[in-house]
Amino acid sequence: MSVVGVMVALRVWCRCFVGWYRWGRVSFWIAVIDMPSSSSRSSADGSFDAWLGRAPAVPRRRGRSGSPGSGADGLRFAFYGRISTAEYQDAVSSRAWQLEAAGRVLAGRGRIVMEFFDAGASRSLPWVRRPQAAALLGAAGQPDRGFDAVVVGEFERAFAGAEAPVVIALLESFGVQVWLPKTRGRVDLARADHQALLLMLGHQSEREVLRNRFRTSAAMAVQVREQGRNQGGRPPYGYRLVDAGPHPNTVHAQWGRRAHRLDVDPVTAPHVRWIFARRREGMSAAAIARTLNDRGVASPGAYDRARNRHRVDSVWTLRTVAAILANPRYTGRQVWNRQFTDHREAVPGDKRSSLGPVRVWNQRSDWVVSDERTHPPLISDDEFLAIQRVTALSVPGDGQQRRYAFTGLLVCAVCGRRLEGHWVNRQPGYRCRHGHTSALPSGEAGPRWVYRSQAHLARELAATYPDLAAASNAEEMASYLRVRDLVVVCAADKLTIEAAIPDVGSPAIEASHAQLALPMPAMGRRRGRTKARTLKSRIPGRRRKSKNPRSGRT
């Protein structure tokens, strides 16, 4: 290009720049002149909040249009959220961020019209056992439910294990979709990648539960062994909780949390020392409990009503005394992990596969004991060890081995309890005291106790039921009954053989899943009289008539 051409192009560019500059100044002053005053803006808009809520004339478009969950049209969503513990989590903030995450999923494609939020429900609980989740399922099955789909802010807040495909399939059978953040929209069970994603997220959720269990247990064990810290729970009878200064964690201490330790209770500690002294002298645990009741000493449940509101008319029992005598915390050491909760889960971490929690005693080698004494002892180590050696003889004094053939097979016709073994007149026998224990004085009111000797039982059963007459001894009779799931109901004047199968679906069976490994109450035992059985119908070798014409039997 020549020099003349360059000069011409430069001149044209300068004229364009001057024009653009002048036009910008004019546009600016035009905008200033047209801008309304503050007074006019306030009168036109009404308030500053109205200005904040009004969208701009030309909204900016970045990504998806619309704000989360603000679309006037589209699907109607029901939101589901959850927190595990209402005591240690903020339900308001947790619900807010879960709702915000759910809003991002359905941005511009619908709006949330209903909310279901479970506070204090574990992720391992199935939906039918969560109050709000069960209400959502119930509402989804109604024709006028008011929503078209369900949205969840986080997968782990709604599902665990392999429950997600089951719940989603159930909701889809009602015509309700399920939207998740991980799938960026609707879950399609027909897609293989969605199925694989649900399984992976379910296993990851279970892994998190197991990981938290292990880390918490390991940390608590170290705190007890090396620091002697109290891990909570009610103090042992004879002690009370007192302040032990700021929390060892500096952050928790800044929040105002305090540590606690055990100290001697001046009211109950003398009774504990008296219990150990009487046991050292050879008094039985039942006699100690009976003496405490006669003297009117408040039992642990009656003394601390704030922590034992569920117990009514609590008295001293044999097991209460035995628990005190076997507790090594009275030596001044902190002890943890004597028991653990067995969830009995077929799939670890999945409570839906649980048969119900039970408390199980650990082996003594698994107990966690502090290295140093952490609180004042009520008994010395030598005295505690000496008392542990004062126990019932494993072999009777006469050297005979005592066996009870009908243990677990005899049921009281009065109260429904199982008869317990009782050695009397140098021979095995059975008795039912209708819930009475040797720790309580016998009262005149109430039904008479049931006593049956094993020899009389065998003779009466052989005379009443010919099928048992062929048995040569009581052991063979007991074996016959156990194989056929039968029990002997013992009344005052007769014996009756009945089925030992409990009623299916009875309240006792449902309650047994959550019952601890403790003695079953009187009303908790069921003999199962729903199906009458005869001994002849259970004799091996007998063939019943078949109603199937193809079987070849008539």
Task: Give a verbal description of the structure.
With 554 residues, this protein is α/β, with parallel strands linked by helices. It is 36% helix and 16% strand. The chain contains 17 helices and 17 strands. The strands form six sheets. It has a five-stranded mixed β-sheet, sandwiched between helices. Strands 12-16-17 form a three-stranded mixed β-sheet. The model is unreliable at 25-44, 63-72 and 503-554 (pLDDT under 50).
In terms of DSSP E residues, the strand content is 15-25%
Number of helices in the DSSP assignment: 17
Mean pLDDT reading: 75
Going by helix content, strand content and strand pairing, the class is alpha/beta
Give start-end ranges of low-pLDDT stretches.
25-44, 63-72, 503-554
Distance between the termini: 116 Å
Record the strand order, biggest sheet.
2-1-3-4-5
What is the CA-atom radius of gyration, in angstroms? 37 Å
Strand segment count: 17
Sheet with most strands: 5 strands, mixed
The coarse overall form would be extended
Give a short synopsis of this structure.
This protein is α/β, with parallel strands linked by helices. The chain contains 17 helices and 17 strands.
